[in-house]
Amino acid sequence: MAYVDIFIASVKKDGRDAYLDFSKKTGALCREFGVTRMVEYWGDDIPAGEITSFPLAVKAEPDEVVVVSIMEWPDKAKRDEGMGRMMSDPRMAAIEMPFDGKRAIMGGFEKIMEH
Question: Which of 29, 30, 66, 115 could make an S-S bridge to 35, C-beta 3.0–4.6 Å?
């Protein structure tokens, strides 16, 4: 059953091109290591919130935009194997992140229903 990793970060508003470049580079590696589909989203209508929100989750600064990346894998086993290989690949380490990785959040999700 399909498995997805969802990644949320904040990127400088003027850093869209840098983020797209980062995404192209990482996307190629993701495909190589088993990702079947990868979609990137640039925040557009994201309320700030007072208790919970996307901006609060990644401690977004006023000059930053929240981005969401979804990587779909065939199943969790292929994700675990592919992600392990990808994260240990020196090409991945050489890609400069256009965001503060310490404020990013990521998690894996098992599909339970599709409408």
Answer: 30
